[in-house]
């Protein structure tokens, strides 16, 4: 993984000192709330329903057991003993005291972490495939590029006060697991016909209030030009993006207003002035960043060792977990393991300090100390020997990480919702739990197969409901919490936005509505057809007819 | 006469900023709206300079850059970041070498970024202490990006 040099450490340290002084001036009344607000947001600090919330960056979801232990320490010392992993591969603490935040940032800096630009109208944490570096379908490792972007975007003097937040995702594999089509900028690492590495550049995607699938502004951008091209895109956005209405301030609105051709031409014109400038990456620069992401010291191992096969023969539950919660690895004899943070009764993405320490221990014992945070709000140990899988499963079960539901209905993406968030219109955690409880029969759950169910407590869409196969959106109707259901959304290569099936539902009715939706799927699916494929084939009408039949 | 930060120190301002589009300029150095400056500058007995709104079209200004002693860029709110891009364009693309001043909602916590993008004078909001704000120019000792102040990105300077 990337390791700070002396300058990285110095810059983060100076940022902590700067924020300590800003906090001091705010508490002393020298900075107004209005003046302090953008400053604290750019250090990840929200003022929430009950208390401040601090969002800590995990750059592209990549971190170590050492850093996880520090997060556990922070949860214990400054919070209520738990934390929450987010859909931007970050981690949130829900109960820190404002005056302690500078100390928390200093503790983070000790382990090469920070909360820089985890909120605010600036470039946010760059995200990527949680299986980057180990995925069997990977074309090129996106992580060096993510680190290049992290450095470029961190404290960029020109782009600290954009019209609105700005999110970049990078994918380097056949299957897009980074949701590049729904980001302000989506970068797909590709090789051109001559074998050169570069990017297909998508711009103007996003969820939130106005969900949009991004559009291609450049088919192939040679890798060396990445930063000058990003500067050009951001400069056009910074200068011409709307600032009069925060709901029309994202780059997607600018791209629509200019048309994608018009926007691309404007960027191209800007870029002609910046191209080949000092920020152009030389081969040795790219090699330097790549040198941090070399493979760990894998052993040469035979696939299917006896430790694995014997356990599979003895334990059907282990087999189910293997199928659902582990992934193929580039290295024979290894698998990537997903630790589920979607146990029924636990808010999706939540983890206690003791569990965090346990994950760190598992990573050290079984996986070179490496951990990934997935945007689906699970954790991943990327490099586990097949011969260790049974021992890891046994530990994961003890700690509540072994629910064999990855990719299934109960592996829901879910924002903190009205229980915590000041923006939410409705609670999301109890709805997720009600669905998990209704579909707790593992045989049925597995029979239903892969279903992305995403839940947001408000239109800001932190729970990515638009790209859930089934999406749930909390809405406010005359002060009551109601839930709108969408079907047909999808992330990945066939990214699509779900469509609302009809009038919204009361919280208590949601499990029943799900029963009906899934009943239609069971009745109508063809052999081997996944839920989303059935929805695409038969359309929404059969689902609407079933769900709304008894209401008339 | 108010205090401003210029070339790294607090100093008395020689210029009078005229916010309104008036053509009645007092007999001293004035900073006036761009459109007014373009039409009336030649009749003035003292020095004059334009201030730019964040959405200003700078094309009309380009023929004059070599002769201008000062250009001011307005920040109607400190959260409006357009002026940073304008500054870089004037400095880096069009080679403007005179004084570049930030006016409007100019506060301590933005000074470092403003300085990086090419500003060298700062009319810190009058209800704030310019001397206290001055220290913010040293908030960071280095940075990752190419800016007007840093010709090379960090990755070319540090391995």
From TrEMBL, chain A:
GO molecular function: 4 iron, 4 sulfur cluster binding; heme binding; metal ion binding; oxidoreductase activity
Any Pfam family the entry gives: NIR_SIR_ferr
Residue ranges annotated for the Nitrite/sulphite reductase 4Fe-4S domain, each copy included: 119-273, 412-547
Alphabetically ordered keywords of this record: 4Fe-4S, Heme, Iron, Iron-sulfur, Metal-binding, Oxidoreductase
Residue span(s) of domain Nitrite/Sulfite reductase ferredoxin-like: 53-110, 345-395
Record-linked SUPFAM superfamilies: Nitrite and sulphite reductase 4Fe-4S domain-like, Nitrite/Sulfite reductase N-terminal domain-like
Keyword Transmembrane: no
Protein name in UniProt: Nitrite/sulfite reductase
Origin species: Craterilacuibacter sinensis
Automatic annotation (TrEMBL), chain B:
One Pfam short name: DUF934
Origin: domain of life: Bacteria
InterPro entries, A to Z: UCP030820 (IPR008318)
Entry protein name: DUF934 domain-containing protein
């Amino acid at each position: 993984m990337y390791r700070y040099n002396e300058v990285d450490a110095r810059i983060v340290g100076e940022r902590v000192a700067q924020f300590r002084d800003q906090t001091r001036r705010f508490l002393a009344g020298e900075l107004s709330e209005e003046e302090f607000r953008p400053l604290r947001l750019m250090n990840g600090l929200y003022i929430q329903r009950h208390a401040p919330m601090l969002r800590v960056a995990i750059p592209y979801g990549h971190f170590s057991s050492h850093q996880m232990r520090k997060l556990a320490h922070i949860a214990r010392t400054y919070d209520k003993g738990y934390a929450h992993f987010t859909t931007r591969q970050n981690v949130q603490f829900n109960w820190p005291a404002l005056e302690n935040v500078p100390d928390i940032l200093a503790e983070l800096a000790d382990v090469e972490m920070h909360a820089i630009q985890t909120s605010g109208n600036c470039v946010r944490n760059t995200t990527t495939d949680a299986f980057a570096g180990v995925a069997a379908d990977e074309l090129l490792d996106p992580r060096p590029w993510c680190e290049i972007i992290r450095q470029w975007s961190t404290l960029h003097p020109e782009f600290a006060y954009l019209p609105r937040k700005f999110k970049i995702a990078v994918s380097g594999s056949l299957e897009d697991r980074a949701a590049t089509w729904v980001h302000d900028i989506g970068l797909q690492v590709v090789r051109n016909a001559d074998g050169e590495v570069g990017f297909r550049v998508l711009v103007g995607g996003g969820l939130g209030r106005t969900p949009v699938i991004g559009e291609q502004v450049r088919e192939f951008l040679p890798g060396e030009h990445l930063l000058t091209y990003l500067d050009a895109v951001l400069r056009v956005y910074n200068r011409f993006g709307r600032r009069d209405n925060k709901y029309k301030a994202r780059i997607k609105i600018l791209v629509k207003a200019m048309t994608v051709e018009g926007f691309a031409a404007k960027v191209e014109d800007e870029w002609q002035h910046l191209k080949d400038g000092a920020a152009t990456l030389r081969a040795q620069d790219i090699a330097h960043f790549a040198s941090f992401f070399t493979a760990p010291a894998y052993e040469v191992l035979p696939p299917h060792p006896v430790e694995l096969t014997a356990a599979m023969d003895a334990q059907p539950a282990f087999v189910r977990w293997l199928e659902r919660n582990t992934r193929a690895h580039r290295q024979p004899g290894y698998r990537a393991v997903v630790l589920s943070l979607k146990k029924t009764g636990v808010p999706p993405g939540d983890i206690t300090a003791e569990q965090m320490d346990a994950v760190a221990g598992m990573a050290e014992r079984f996986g070179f100390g490496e951990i990934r945070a997935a945007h689906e709000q699970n954790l991943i140990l990327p490099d586990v020997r097949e011969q260790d899988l049974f021992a890891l499963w046994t530990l994961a079960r003890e700690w509540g990480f072994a629910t064999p539901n990855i990719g299934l209905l109960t592996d829901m993406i879910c924002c903190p919702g009205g229980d915590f968030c000041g923006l939410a219109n409705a609670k999301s955690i109890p709805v997720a739990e009600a669905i998990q409880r209704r579909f707790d029969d593992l045989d049925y759950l597995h029979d239903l197969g892969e279903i992305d169910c995403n839940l947001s407590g408000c239109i800001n869409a932190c729970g990515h409901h638009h790209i859930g196969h089934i999406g749930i959106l909390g809405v406010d109707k005359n002060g009551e919490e109601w839930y709108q259901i969408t079907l047909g959304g999808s992330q990945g290569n066939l990214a699509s936005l779900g469509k609302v099936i009809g009038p919204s539902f009361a919280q208590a009715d949601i499990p029943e509505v799900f029963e009906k939706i899934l009943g239609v799927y069971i009745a109508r699916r063809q052999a081997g057809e996944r839920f989303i494929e059935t929805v695409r084939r038969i359309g929404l009408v059969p689902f609407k007819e079933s769900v709304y039949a008894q209401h008339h | 006469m108010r205090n401003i930060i210029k070339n790294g120190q607090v100093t008395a301002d020689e210029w009078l900023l005229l916010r309104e589009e008036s053509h009645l300029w007092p007999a001293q150095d004035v900073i006036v709206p761009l459109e007014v400056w373009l039409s009336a500058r030649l009749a003035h007995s003292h020095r004059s300079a334009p201030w730019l709104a964040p959405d200003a079209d700078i094309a009309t200004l380009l023929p004059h850059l070599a002769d201008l002693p000062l250009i001011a860029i307005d920040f109607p709110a400190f959260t409006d970041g357009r002026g940073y891009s304008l500054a870089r364009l004037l400095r880096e693309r069009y080679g403007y070498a005179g004084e570049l001043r930030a006016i409007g909602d100019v506060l301590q916590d933005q000074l470092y970024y403003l300085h990086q993008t090419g500003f060298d004078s700062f009319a810190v909001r009058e209800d704030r202490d310019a001397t206290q704000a001055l220290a913010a120019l040293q908030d960071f000792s280095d940075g990752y990006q190419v800016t007007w102040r840093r010709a090379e990105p960090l990755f070319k300077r540090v391995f």
